[in-house]
Amino acid sequence: MTHTPDLPSTLSALDRPNSYIGRSVPRPNIARLAQGRGQYVSDIVLPRMAHVAFVRSPYAHARIVMIDATAAKRAIGVIAIVTGAKLAKVISPWVGVLTHLKGIKSAPQHAIAVERACWQGEAVCAVVARTRAEAEDACELVHVKYEELAPVTDAETALDPTTPVIHAELGDNLTFERKHQAGDPDQGFALADAIVETTFRFGRHTGVTNEPRAIVADWNPGEERLTVYQGTQAPHMMQNLFAKHLGLQEHQVRVLTKDVGGSFGIKVHTYADEMATVALSKLLRRPIKFVADRLESFVTDIHARDHRVNARIGVKRDGTITAWEIDDLTGIGPYSVYPRTSGIEANQVVNLVGGPYTCPNYRARARVVFQNKNVMCQYRAVGHPIATSVTEGLVELAAAKIGIDPLELRRRNLIPDDAYPASGPSGIKFEALSHHACLARLDTMMNYAGLRAEQARLRERGVHRGVGFASFIEVTNPSAAFYGVGGARISAQDGATVRLDATGAIFCATGVTEQGQGTEAVIAQCVATAFGVPLERVRVITGDTDNVPYGGGTWASRAAGIGGEAAWQAGKALRQNVLAAAGSILQAEPGTLDIANGVIVDAGTGRERIGLDEVARIVYFRPDTLPPGFQAEMVATRHYVPRAFAFAFTNGVQASHLEVDTDTGFIRLLKHWCIEDCGTVINPQLVDEQIRGGVVQGIGAALLEHCVYDDRGQLTNGTMADYLVPMAPEMPDIEIGHVVTPTADSELGAKGAGEAGTAGASGAIMNAVNDALRPLGAPPITEIPITPDVVLRALGKI
Amino acid sequence: MSDRVDIALTVNGEEVHAAVEPRQNLVDFVREELQLTGSHVGCEHGVCGACTVRVDGVIVRGCLLLAVQCEGCTVETIEGVSDTGEIADLQAAFVARNALQCGFCTPGMLLTAQELLLKASAAPSREEIRAHLSGNYCRCTGYQAIVDAVEEVALARKDGAR
Q1: Burial code of B19-36, b = ≥16 C-beta within 10 A, e = fewer?
Q2: Tens of pLDDT, residues A419-449
Q3: How many angstroms away from the CA of B71 is the closest CA of chain A?
């Protein structure tokens, strides 16, 4: 078994006695999950709880003429049948716009469709019954008369004057448009010796969390409080939204998030059926449970990507990149998703294209359009796979065109490691990146020269292997620039409260959340190290808006970098408090003392003075023995938000090695490498596993996953038998290396690592496939997923 | 739906008598009637493997078998094999190697891995492990850590048997 080696920090501030920073310690909270003793929302049962199932529109676009629930109301177990119009009296509609995305527009979206359904799968009626099965039985008996309307399905023609406008009051089907120009792209292209121009296409795909979305809402009229058990990444955000749209004060809403069966950005949005569930609880004055089944998940969980990017790169004969140009078009369904909007992904594409390179000449346009398909929104690595595949696809096509090795072309154009702080062509600011160090490390780790020699040898035997690369940047640790400045009440800061209990153990409540990344382990490592106790003495509490500091939750790779720093600072603050108490007990200057391994010691010698349990005993049970006027404070809270940079960009490079069967079009993945730099590595094993999982999600996008719609807006493959996801046999082993460039914005120096794998994997694979097929004269493949069909078409075999 | 059917079976070593709807599948039965929530419902159409349980010693999809079909059977879930200690080494390896993230697939993954280890005469190769786990979907890990953990236990058990 390959164990991840520790990556001990060399930074003095982190170099504490018995430091856990840089150590691959196991997560404290997973033994119970391995025993089947987790508590996911789908497991929760409350007294008087009823279940809701939804009647969903079979049409992509239809007027709801009439709903007849007469027969359904008589069905066994039915408690209530609620239409959109009835529920709209309990919960107000929402509009998914942000003020900093200039010009973005959307229409009011209701919890249950009122008068009109705008995508196949939109809920048009709720059926509440004693059991989910009875609710589904009754759904079958609800008779809905629809008048089918012309669906808008093709993003390419969504803005044509002849195309129907989905929301007439908006005037057209344009959600958002952004144009950007920097440097002198026209002159850049004029100076180029070669220009590569192509169109990249990215299929729609979705998150397929193993546990579907789940929510239990419990309105208690006795105390006028709503308790919501929800698998969400952002409990405080949801608290705000539930309160706002139900007409409650925020303190009347408690959001509890226990175990979450996978998330990846899927569970950070407002879903109409979840809003309907909380409203039904308020309406019916009892707990209501909704767990999406898999078929519902495919037509209601947010979809992602679905971009068409016309792209151009100019390059000189010596390999110097002279200009970039992109025109991005993406269709996002009938509504911009609330509250983060569906404009962010296209905005990210504009921000990130060309980001690793020095060439400043850049022209970009991104248009986001409405269509009658399921909604699209932010999913793991938002925009990054698009921007990286476009940039890196162009780079390798340019390298091939002028006959330069693709790694060499990168060496000549990547921003030098000593040139920071620097900016990308879109104006994004980089504190410190390490593209060249990562590239050099990758070159060695994968034995690039050896692979090329093997490739040539095998080529003679008719074996077609390819190697492809993707240098990437990743947005992590976002400041308020992401959402807060646009008016969304999504916290950019996060807090941690640590408490010494009466036996010397530490409790830490944090605003960041756990969906399997290892948040609780990382927070515990920060607190244990900063304060000075063995890891097993730290208990971490997450996901409870009544009991944790106000915070943003876990998304955009922010939990370790932002939540970790808050926990680190809180641990340090509590150490000072405890040392003050210990000093008064020992009649010593607190500054001469420290805490190591759960014991108060002399700072200089490490000589043990008094146990934490003894300090706690005196403080809590015999405070009468402390000096007059001394009050011990055994709780400390600290908050953190990045201030120096809007985002802590990380960077890295991935490589894919694969073999193409030119008869069947099948692609066999042989190996994948990723070198990444997320700053200080708190837990190397957890970082590596985030990257591996992310890479495999990118592999799914590259080769398998696709939400296939027909021209009437029907999803044609919405089951797990038809929508292919990565399974164990087809996935490669993934080798990971690190370069460490800490951010100076925090003492910990940690940046995020959750999305790096997904950011680069699909681009590296696309480049590797083209590397394999290029000598066969196949035109470049610039669409994903690269199915066998796509390969065989490129080879002219079908 | 009414017309419940009486069934008697053994679940995790305990005799169970219940009246069930004929349409209720096994995983809903163990989760909802017996409160054994360690078996999970991921797709309800036999693809994801989150509902994997053992019936008469063989792993099955709990969503593809009806509870009434288990009359007289011996059913084992993750709670049962955890309490007997049968897979304690696998569980420890999964924890040490971080072979689970969200943990939703893990009970099914462990039971499937245990089946391979019980029937393999020699320690299985990584390819054999991957092939045997081919019906269990994990969105979080990318599978490598799972393969590592199962491989380590396979080798350790073979060493122990020598």
Answers
A1: ebbeebbbbbbbbbebeb
A2: 999 999 999 999 999 999 999 999 999 999 9
A3: 22
Chain A hits for B127, Cβ within 8 Å: 729
Select A31-38+493-640's CATH number: 3.40.720.10, 3.30.365.10, 3.40.50.2020, 3.40.47.10.
3.30.365.10
Q: Which one of B131, B139, B148 has the shortest CB-CB distance to A210?
A: B139
Start-end of H helices in A639-727: 684-699
Q: Which CATH number among 1.20.1440.230, 3.20.20.370, 3.40.640.10, 3.30.365.10 corresponds to the domain A383-475+647-794? A: 3.30.365.10
Is the confidence at residue A24, as pLDDT, over 90? yes
Stretch A167-176: mean pLDDT: 98
Asked if residue A625 has pLDDT above 60, the reply is yes
Residue A366 and residue A352: Cα distance in Å, rounded?
12
Chain A residues in contact with B103 (beta carbon < 8 A)? 30, 33-34, 38, 259, 261, 516
ipTM of the complex: 0.97
The domain spanning residue B145 has which CATH number?
A: 1.10.150.120
Tokens of A26: 């196991």
d(CA A525, CA A522) in angstroms, rounded, equals: 5
Closest CA to A657 of A465, A428, A503: A465
pLDDT, tens only, A748-788: 999 999 999 999 999 999 999 999 999 999 999 999 999 99
In this structure, the strands spanning A253-256 and A225-230 are parallel
Of residues A76, A134, A262, nearest to B140 (C-beta): A262
Please give the share of chain A, as a percent, with pLDDT higher than 90. Answer: 97
CATH value at residue B21: 3.10.20.30
Q: Is pTM, for the whole model, over 0.80?
A: yes
Examine the fold and report which residue of B81, B113, B129 is the final residue of a domain before the chain moves on: B81
